[in-house]
Amino acid sequence: MNDERPHVLVIDDDNRLRDLLGKFLGEHGFLVVTASDAADARDKMTLFAFDIIVLDLMMPGENGLDFAEDLRRRSKIPILMLTAMGEPENRIEGLERGADDYLPKPFSSRELEVRVNAILRRISYEREQITPQSGVGDAQLSFDEKASRLRCGNTSVSF
To answer: How far is Cα of residue 138 from the mean position of the Cα atoms in its chain?
Structure first.
């Protein structure tokens, strides 16, 4: 069965907060996987496709800023930074290094839910705006097996 709920990866080294975030988001319509640090997150990202990442900054090993910056080089997956580092310079650095949004702790769980939904809504809108290029996307494809010929609109290719 295909689960259409948005898939969230929560990365936080605080076990209690990570579990609470997972439970809260799960109860509010999200499919949630949690990770305790960047290495754990990378492992889980090889197994699952995520729609958004909720990322803590202060973690042992690779910190959230470095993780976000590295991830941003390879992916457009949205990142919501959720951290105790709430000064303006921290928020600016987080956004410059790859975050799509930044929510300082302490935070309202309802605000977290609303921000995650807002990011997903923007991403969904951007995907809807992508239109196929003229040509193949608009043409009818047909394949004549006996003649080994592929036809796309008025063009055909023999094999």
So the answer is: 29
